[in-house]
Amino acid sequence: MDTKKEQGKLKKEFKAQKISGVGKSITETGKSKSGKTEVSSESWDFDSVLKVIPFVIYAFLPPLFKYEIEYVWSKISVAYLATALVGIVLAYITLKLKKVYFNFPKTFIPVVLFLVLGSASAIWAYNPYKTQNLAVMIAPGVLAYITLQLFLFQRKEIKVIAFFSAISASIVSGYGFLQVIGVFPMPPDQYGAPNPITTFGLSNFAVEYLLTVFPIILAFVFIEKNIVMRVVFASSSLITFLYMVAAKNRAGWVGLIAFIIFFLLIYLAHITRKVPLSKIAKYLALGVVGTSIFLFIFFTQTKFGGEMIARFKSFVAVGPGSSVSTRLLAWSGGLEMIKENPIIGVGGGNFEIYSWKYAPRLLDEGTIFTNTRVDKAHNEFLQIFADLGIVGFTIFISIIFIILKLYLDIFSKTREIKKEEDEELFFIATGLFLGILSLLASASFNFSLQWPGSVLMFWLNLGLLELIHSYISGQKPIEFEINKKLVALLPGLGVFVASIGAPCVDGIPFCTKETGFSQFSCQVKRKICRASVGFFASRNLMLAEIYYRIAQWQKRFRNFDISERYYLASLQHDNPAERTYYDLAYLYLGKSGGALTQRTIDLLEQTIKYVPYFGKGVRELGNMYVQLGQIDKGIEYLLRSTDSNPANIPEAYALVANAYFMKGDYQKAIEYGQKALEEIDNSPSWKYYKIPLPDRVFDVNSVRFMAYFAIGASYAQLKDYDSAQKYLELAQSIKPQDMRVLINLSTVYINKGEFDKAEGILNSFEPQDFKEKGAKLFNLASLYAARGDKEKALEYLKAASEVDPTLFDRAFRDKYLKNILRNEN
766 phi and psi, to 5 degrees? Predict the structure, then answer.
């Protein structure tokens, strides 16, 4: 039998059925010439309305919904509620019709493999909770993708979803565009630059969402017959397009350019199926010339066009803080990650943790100029490779290839479009496909598949594209007969339970006071809560974020008790957040007036347990151990901190130098002090671009001071007074009134016979504590002994010994005092 005829027959048979929910009912609205029953794709009944409502909520609310100060997990929470409603509707329709229809999507097997691998990666991931958090982000989209295959939406349902997407897109774009043209002020972004911030926060997140919905909205401009609806779609398309251009988001521009190129190619190929290319060639030429002239005038003669050119140039500029440099450096770090973990990667969501370790030093320094940290690859393909290795990357690429094949198949099967309905399905499929393609193009420069709006719509588009492909190819859905009521409820209940997740209403229990069976049950519940996805998981993450922000705010005003309460509430709802442990540690430090407590130490230990490559945190913990007198342990942590966060290395080495000085290992102190100075000069920001590092990276003068002091004081102990004088005077030039420097420098001057300099220094300061007072009195005793004034020397030595009795024994090792004491005896 001829293949085309067979496909046509299957197609007609499928269209002769009206699928309502997960069951089907046939409504005769007319007879075709062949006598087969056909249905109007615009006819509605109660079930059709019921099944489309959850997907309207799913597509309409998350782009707009913003709870309090946190908009990431609140959007995901709303999406979960929508899919939970899908489960209820599915249960109702299945119970009513006692049948389930499932369209088996071509991407189903690789999608399942990808998700299974991603979930399994929690086993080998350093921090499985990062994997779980990523799963919470993706799960509602996947649920939508699967349940669409059960509901078998047709044109009318897709049109309703597109309509509400158009409304959402108009609101998101309209508000942002009004900011761009000055009606509303543009708040600063994380770099301090004005940015059209909408319900998505930064413009790039809004643009990535809009890339997924703009093509399908535009598709309905071409096919919609109702003039009012066409105006709605056209208006939304226009304002969305204008915002995507005006937002000046470079990754968004990449996606938009990809859309424009492929849309023009597809539309041209579609037109030439009906009209020979020779007949439209002159119109094409005129269009190209006209567009070129318009763009030339726009970019050269308008202010906004000039700003766009400048923005494009910054996209390829090289240097600290530039977009392309930041991405190239992030990509190089990702490639290093892949080299060491090539097969199965570091685990889903764990790129963030390993980015501390693999980030090149210039990236580490350069991003802190903008008070940010690159914890994502800014290239989804590279990040997936790093997270899941070549296995996961291959599966993901296969999904993309299948999507491409689906569309090419749709394009091929609609080569000879004879019916209006076929034309409509072709344009809808094209809109869905271009939404996916545009987002993937943008994802090559951003993390588009890890953000609520874009990731939710990506999976929705894919699910709808699969349905349209099955319609056009004549693929019949799999049919299941269900006779028992309880069994009929199972599909809907399964979707509902997956959407709601573990009912952790009060967050994640701490399990600290329970004993016996209560302790065991609490620990089981804790594990379930931490491993669960669904509404409660996203709600807990949302509350954790809100409580954390409130705690930060209260800490800023030194309301420590209130801040502590909110930090603990954040931890109870988190999965878990290492930053909360870190901030809580410093809250306790502030609460104790700067005095180190075991509580502070324990929290910092907990922080680096979750992010072992957090160099700054490891360095600070090491410094605390040194202050507590656990010098060897402190040195161990300080040196460990240099394995990551390379911008942290100079300060770590300077602290190690001071720790060795305290320990009495003066050669090591000199060695690491010199290393600290070398690392300052090795800063690529300074070495290659002559840009000094800002104080928030580290205070260069402070690090130099620590290094100079450790070296100078160590040389003094080794009696190399010339070298000691050189470095201590350098330290004094940075901090002229530092007591330690003044005391050590006076010792050097005394031993070099420069008594006037020594006396001038010793008379220039008043001691702040008993140690400084004892050291000053001791050096005065040594000075007068050197000058031969035995009486004053003994007077000051007696006074010093009263402050610190150990100083009398030290006098027997002093170059001048030992002679006086021997003669005295």
Answer: -110, 125
- Are 513 and 533 in contact by the 8 Å Cβ rule? The answer is no
Residue 811, beta-bridge partner list: none
Q: Given this model, what pLDDT does residue 23 score?
A: 37
Q: Is the pLDDT of residue 2 over 60?
A: no
Mean pLDDT taken over the chain: 86
Question: Measured between alpha carbons, how far is 661 from 683 in angstroms, rounded to an integer?
Answer: 25
Q: Are 710 and 691 in contact (CB under 8 A)?
A: no
Q: What is the pTM of this model?
A: 0.86
Looking at residue 361, what DSSP letter applies?
A: H
The C-alpha angle with vertex 131 and arms to 125 and 133, in degrees rounded to 5, equals 150
SS (H, E, C) 206-244: HHHHHHHHHHHHHHHHHHCCCHHHHHHHHHHHHHHHHHH
Average pLDDT score over residue span 808-821: 83
215, 158 in Cβ contact below 8 A?
no
Q: Do 597 and 609 touch, CB atoms closer than 8 A?
A: no
Residues ≥6 apart with Cβ < 8 Å to 416: 273
Angle at 529 between CA 526 and CA 534, to 5 degrees: 180
Are residues 48 and 157 in contact, defined by beta-carbon separation less than 8 angstroms? yes
- The token duo for 773 is 């007072």
- Contact indicator for 567, 547 with CB cutoff of 8 Å: yes
Strand pairing partners for 67?
70
Burial label, 66 (beta-carbon count in 10 A; 0-12, 13-18, 19+): middle
Strands 99-102 and 478-481: antiparallel
pLDDT band at 36 (very low <50, low <70, confident <90, very high): very low
Amino acid at 784: Y
Q: Could you read off the pLDDT of 637-669 as tens digits, one per residue?
A: 999 999 888 888 999 999 999 999 999 999 999
Q: List the structure tokens of 313.
A: 């140039």
The domain ranges of the chain are 3-42+106-319+380-476
Instruction: Render pLDDT for 728-747 as a digit per residue (tens, 0 to 9).
Output: 999 999 999 899 999 999 99
What pairs with residue 99 in β-bridges? 481
